[in-house]
What does this fold into?
Amino acid sequence: MSRLPMVLAFPRVLRHLRSVGASLPPVTRLSVGRPDPVLRPVLSAAWEGDHGAARELLADTRRRREWERRDRCVAALADVALVRPRWLEVWLEKEGDDPDAALVSADLQIDRAWEARTSVRAKHVSRERFAEFFRILGEAAPVIERAAELNPGDPVPWRVALQHARGSQAPRPVFDRLLLNVMDSDPDHYPCHANALQFLCAKWYGSHEEMFDFAETAAARARPGRLLAALPVEAVTEYLTEHPLGRGPVPRQRVHAAVDRTLEVCAGYEPGDPAATGIRNHLALALTRCGRWEEALRQFELIGTDVRELPWAYVDGENEVRGFADARENTRVQVAKAVPFFSRYRPAA
It folds into this structure.
């Protein structure tokens, strides 16, 4: 960019920045993975050693077959158990055949394995950490199988199994069988498909092309109202982390089409809806990397304070909130730069 546009842009930023994104919450209010109001007291009770609220909540999700909500609850409870495991141990001692306790235990095994490995690229993981990682995954396999047996038709154990397959370097036929199990239980289950996408991405066992093909096929067959229709935006996250837009093997039109599809899906969800917040975090990052600043600003407004670990760990591996906040601030600056000096900023409709 020439110096003249930058010279012209700086006064615009000074003049308009305060009014751009004026409703955005301050950085001090941002947090990673804030649970929804119903889940928050359940997590607090588990933290204090009481499994009763978790037992009731997960049983309710199972009876209602609210599989994606169940997945969010199980994952959050496993996170608590990673630090405070006693409540889960007591639950399993009292009710070893409870399908909900078994499912949290299965998810916990995956969390423990990744804690041992860490999330850095393989070349930075020591031999000792890898050995511990694979040891825990080996112990996890029968726990996951037991969770699936105790509640046939529940897709959440297959999400855990897909994570296990990725970490344990499972061969493709194993992955394919797990996908068939997903399709038999809930063919629109978003977390299962998101984990399958990870297996198929270029940094694991697939390619950019295979990843996009999988995401687009899943989105095309998603039933109306299901979040799965937005899956391609996660392919965009993975791809644009490796390649700037227009400078890699995936055409920019394919990337923009995935973003446009996700905008349409998210328009059907209320601001702050926890079901869509994770997707909106991916969408906000995708829009910034596509240079679609006004649309990105709107997504930051809809996200509010609820930052998600992914995709922002890709932006700042040490501090997801900082990665989110920096991207949000740059978006404000880019929007302000585009407003003529003597005009007033008006948010896009």
Observations:
- Residues 38-200 form one domain.
